[in-house]
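Figure S7 source data.
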Amino acid sequence: AADLLMLGIETSCDDTAAAVVRGDGEILSQVVSSQEDLLVRWGGVAPKMAEEAHSLAIDQVVQKALDDANVSENDLSAVAVTVGPGLSLCLRVGVHKARKIAKSFRLPIVGVHHMEAHALVSRLVNKDLDFPFLALLISGGHNLLVLAHGLGQYVQLGTTIDDAIGEAYDKSARWLGLDIRKGGGPALEQLALEGDPNAVKFSVPMRQHKDCNFSYAGLKTQVRLAIESRNISTDDIPISSATRDDRQIRANIAASFQRVAVLHLEERCQRAVEWALKMEPSIKYFVVSGGVASNQYVRTHLNQIAEKNGLQLVCPPPRLCTDNGVMIAWTGIEHFIAGRFDDPPAVDEPDDMQ
Ligand code: KG4
Ligand code: ZN
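C-alpha cells for the predicted zinc ion complex:
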C-alpha cells in the first residue's frame, strides 16, 4: 500500500482543503484555505458566498497540495473527494475539480462521506486501531455516536434531535461578542479558561431520555437568556472593549456553557459505551473526532469516560479533527484498497458535467 498515492479534496463547508497521502498513511502535504472574513461578515456560512470562495481557491489549493508533496497528477493512484453531506453548491466545486483531474489523467475517483472521513482518519493516526470501535463525531452540523463494525458498516447509536454542539459553541461565541475570525469554538474555549464553570446554572439536556441522542438547541437558548438577563449588550460591545466586570460575566457564561455542553456529551457517551460493549464486547477504542474534538476541555473529559470503561481514547491532533483534506485522502485509500471506486470519467464527458 505504501506506493499508493491519493489526492483528497474537501469543500463541503467553509474550508477549501486538499492533501496528498501515501497508502501507508504518510501525509505528504496538507493545505487548508478558510473563509474567516466571510464568516464574520455574514454571520455564518452563506452557501452562495462559500461557493464563490471555494471556486476562487480550489485550483491553487490543489496545486499547492501537489507541489508541497512534490508530485504531479501523473503520480497519483486516484482522487478522493467529499460527496456529502454538506452544502451542495460547495460540494460541487470539489467534485467538479476531482472529475476534471480524473478525466485528464485517467484516474479512478473515490467518493467520500465527510463524517466517515472524520471517523476513519483516526486509523491513520493510530495504526493499531482495528474495527470494531465506538466513535463520537462532533462538528458544526453533526453530533453522531456510531458503532463502526467495519469499513462502510456503521450502526448509528445516537444523533442530535436539533443542533450539533459546534453550532451551540459558534452561536454562543457570537452572542458573547467574541472575536470569531478563527472560529467561535476556539474563541469560547479560550474565554472559558477565565470563567467559573459553576457560576451559571444551565440545565443538562435530555436527562429524562434514556438514549444516546443529543440536543443543543435548548442550551443555546439558555445561553442567550443568560446574556440578556445580565444586560450585557454584546452585539455592539466586543469582548475586547468590555469592562473587567463585564468580561468576567461573559467568561462565567462561557465556562458554564462549556461545562454543561460537555457534560451532556459525557452522559450520552457513557451510555453509548455500555450499549456498544453489549453488542461488541471486543471493543478497545473510543474515537472522538470532528472540529469540536480539537477542544482540550472536550478531550480531557472524554478521555475520562474512556478510561473509566477500560477503553483507549483516540482523538486525532486538532488539525486532523477540523475539516481537512488528509481525512478525505485517507478514507479514499481505505475504500480504494477495498476495491470501492469509480472509473475515470469518459474522455468525451463535458467538463461541466457533475
Ligand atoms: O468538522 P468541522 O471543522 O466542520 C464541520 O464539519 O462542521 O467542525 C467545525 C466546528 C465549528 O462549529 C467550530 O466552532 C468547532 O467545530 N470547533 C470547536 C473548536 N474548534 C473548532 N468547538 C469548540 N472548541 C474548539 N476548540
Ligand atoms: Zn467536518
